[in-house]
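Lab notes, practical 5.
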Amino acid sequence: GTLRDGSTEEFFRTSNYSTYIRMYANMKLSEPNVFEDSNADGVRRVRSTKNGLYAFLMESTSIEYEVEKNCDLRTPKRPIYPRSYGIAMPMNYPYRGLIDNAILELQENGTLTDLKLKWWRHNHKDCLEKQEGMELRIDQVGGVFLVLGVGFIVGLLFGIGEFLWNVWKISVDEHVPYFDAFKAEIKFAINVTITEKHVGNNNNQDEDESKSNEELENL
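Output from the prediction step:
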C-alpha cells in the first residue's frame, strides 16, 4: 500500500513501466483497502500485520528514518524511485546563490551528515545496540562452508585422479609394473630430501649395459 493521494501513489498511477502498472492495479483491487491516510498509519499497519503480508511504500528518506527508529522494520537496499528534496524559491530570488553556496558548504564540511546521524541514529541507540549485538548464526553462513567443502572434495578427487593417471603413464613409458611406479611416486612425494626419482627397472638396465659392453668388446 501507500499514502492515499500522495506523491508515491501518483508515481505508480502515472508510470508507463509495466511492473509498476501491475502493482498499482493490484493495489486498487486489493481488499481490504491498502491505502492509508498518513505515513504513520502505514507504518503501524506494517508492524501490526502478521507474517509480513503488508508492505507500505513511501519516500526513501521517510522510510530510512522509520527503519532507524523501529528495529523490526526492514527496507530493500535499492529504492524503487530515488529522489531528492529541494527548496522552492520564487523566480529571480536574490538569495538563491547564497543559499546554494551555504548548502554546498554544509555538505563539504560534513555538517549535513552530522545532523542526519544526530536525528536519524543517535536518538535511536536501541536499534544500533541490537544491530551491533547480532551475531552470525551457523545457518546464515552454512552455505559458504558447503561451497568450500564441495570445492575441497572436488579438488581432492581431481588431484588423486591426476596422480593415478601420471603413475599409469610412467609405468607405460618406463615399462615397469604399475605398483612399482606407484611406490616410487609415493616415496618421491613424501620424501622432501629426494631431488631425483628413478622408476625404471634396474635389472633391465643392467642387462642392457652388459649387452652394450659385450658388443663393444667384440668390436
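Observations recorded by the TA: Residues 140-190 form one domain. The two ends are 105 Å apart (CA to CA).
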